[in-house]
Specification:
The chain is mainly alpha-helical. It has helices at residues 3-12, 16-48, 52-62, 65-88, 102-118, 120-127, 133-146, 149-165, 170-189, 191-194, 197-222, 245-266, 273-286, 288-308, 312-349, 356-388, 395-447, 453-480, 487-512, 515-535.
């Protein structure tokens, strides 16, 4: 092995220690964003409670900001694999690395956005079939205000993909803090006299400000340095079977459609159903989602590299490793969220216009979505792997997952929503996500022939056993400690519950010899060895 090839491998491979450091940066930034998001939720709950106005705002935000998030994921999924390959080859990212059909996506996207701005009432009727009269008109007005966020999300996602490929997470993640801080400021000072419409305008203004901050900061990183020019034209990269615009659209539309289905069913109930689902999904996206999204941001480039390597055995092993990491990190957080949901909702929203019935409904929705997050983590690893796999077309397999997942979701929600309302929708989402994960796992095992399913099931069973032991310890704590009725008591018990579940989960993992604990131990030993060498 030559020195050049060894150096190239070291440049392309990321050690566990580097991954842990990058994940720590992302978790730290998103933790701050997590705190500001809590402030936003508390301010909205205090001002509007579980009212029809808040239902309209959340529905409008879901169909605009939610679509913007989907666009970011979609563009990132399309752009990241070729950009990663270009960066690894030492090339500067350029427009020629984008798929050829990307222009058609831009045209269709622009048409949909213009149609939404011209006839927002049609969108409101489509996504909120249960809204009527003034509530429907309010939803349409706020949709029109926030729709310009979509093109901003398109360009921002291109910049973020390049930053992610170069492992630059601070700028793209920190931009969200600015947007959230502006929203907190306006909600605290101006929304009470101006009303819920001010929240929609603030979402738009914060998005514009955040975009220009990202553009100004990322431009020097994204553009080639002055005088940088390859000595010879870069060689053409052969076309592969994986990826594709259609496949990316299918899987991202599926994930967005599942969320919109939940809220569409919620609009058929009474006032407060949409707000309960929004608070439940928001809390889960902020707490368990903080873990999953942070890991995804750091691990996705490494997962893509693992899948695209020529060694198919190593590729399958890499996919299974990332699945295990996702489940192992997600399980204790989701378990703690399920047990502590009543305490968390009561502490955050148990004052102002948010009454006891709304608290109970939001807590149940939080627990349901927290359960769904456990299965969403490994399923996302599968869909990302299928899309990035260069050895076979991704469209067929992803379409099967999307169609079956959507049908299962509709059937489960149609049964659960009329009987149990918003909590039934959240728990129905968990059941549907678990069933879809099983389908995705079967497809992945057939596609990646070197999957060791028995070993994988044994590892997942160990992780779920650790989570079960931690859940039993948390339940015992809640049973022994009387229910506090004051804010500081609720927060103290919530912190104790979270700490206990994490400690018991990791202790059980050590006893059961879960592979992820061995990896964490190796990282810790490397850090300790490095510190000892510095002292000497």
């Amino acid at each position: 092995m030559t020195d050049a090839s060894a150096e190239g491998r070291r440049a392309q491979a990321t050690s566990g220690k580097a991954l842990a450091r990058s994940a720590g940066v992302v978790v730290g930034i998103r933790g701050l964003d997590f705190g500001l998001s809590f402030l936003v939720s508390v301010l909205l709950a205090n001002r509007f409670g579980a009212s029809g106005q808040l239902d309209a705002f959340f529905l409008a935000r879901r169909t605009t900001v939610g679509f913007a998030d989907t666009i970011r994921k979609l563009v990132g999924q399309i752009v990241l694999p070729p950009v990663l390959a270009a960066v690894d080859r030492g090339e500067a990212p350029s427009l020629r690395h984008l798929p050829r059909r990307m222009a058609w996506f831009f045209v269709v996207f622009a048409g949909v956005m213009l149609a939404g701005m011209l006839v927002p009432t049609v969108w409101a009727k489509l996504f909120a079939p249960g809204f009527r009269g003034e509530q429907q008109a309010l939803t349409a007005t706020m949709m029109r205000i926030m729709l310009p966020l979509l093109p901003l999300a398109l360009v921002a996602s291109l910049l973020a993909a390049v930053l992610q490929a170069r492992r630059r997470y601070l700028l793209s993640e920190g931009t969200n803090l600015v947007q959230r801080a502006l929203l907190v400021l306006v909600l605290a000072l101006f929304v009470p006299p101006l009303g819920i419409i001010a929240g929609a305008w603030t979402m738009l203004i914060a998005g514009v400000v955040g975009f220009f901050i990202l553009l100004a900061g990322a431009w020097s990183i994204v553009r080639p340095p002055p005088g940088h020019a390859p000595a010879e034209p870069p060689a053409d990269v052969p076309e592969t079977k994986g990826g594709g615009l259609a496949a990316a659209v299918v899987i991202n539309v599926y994930f967005q459609a599942t969320a919109l289905l939940d809220f569409a069913f919620a609009t058929t109930g009474g006032d407060g159903g949409v707000a309960s689902l929004e608070y439940g999904s928001r809390l889960v996206s902020l707490v368990p989602g903080l873990v999953m999204s942070s890991l995804a941001t750091v691990l996705t480039p490494e997962l893509i590299r693992a899948v695209q390597q020529p060694d198919r055995v190593a590729a399958a092993a890499g996919i299974q490793r990332f699945q295990r990491i996702g489940v192992f990190a997600q399980a204790p957080v989701s378990v703690g969220m399920m047990l502590g949901a009543p305490l968390m909702v009561s502490a955050l929203f148990g004052h102002g216009a948010f009454g006891p019935q709304a608290i109970a409904s939001a807590a149940a929705c939080t627990a349901g979505y927290a359960a769904a997050a456990i299965f969403l983590a490994p399923m996302s690893a599968i869909t990302t792997s299928i899309y990035a796999d260069p050895h076979a077309s991704a469209l067929r397999d992803l379409a099967i997952i999307a169609v079956i997942g959507t049908v299962v979701r509709v059937i489960v929600l149609a049964i659960a929503a009329p009987i149990w309302g918003a909590p039934g929708i959240a728990y129905g989402a968990a059941v549907a996500t678990a069933l879809t994960f099983v389908v995705a796992q079967i497809i992945a095992a057939r596609r990646f022939h070197h999957f060791h399913m028995r070993a994988q099931l044994a590892d997942l069973a160990q992780t779920f056993a650790c989570a079960g032991i931690a859940a039993a310890a948390g339940f015992a704590l809640l049973w022994l400690v009387p229910n506090p009725h004051k804010l500081f008591g609720e927060l103290a018990l919530l912190c104790a519950l979270g700490a206990l579940i994490v400690v018991v989960h990791f202790a059980a993992a050590v006893m059961l010899r879960v592979p992820e604990m061995a990896a964490l131990r190796d990282i810790a030993m490397q850090i300790l060895a490095k510190r000892r060498s510095r002292r000497k």
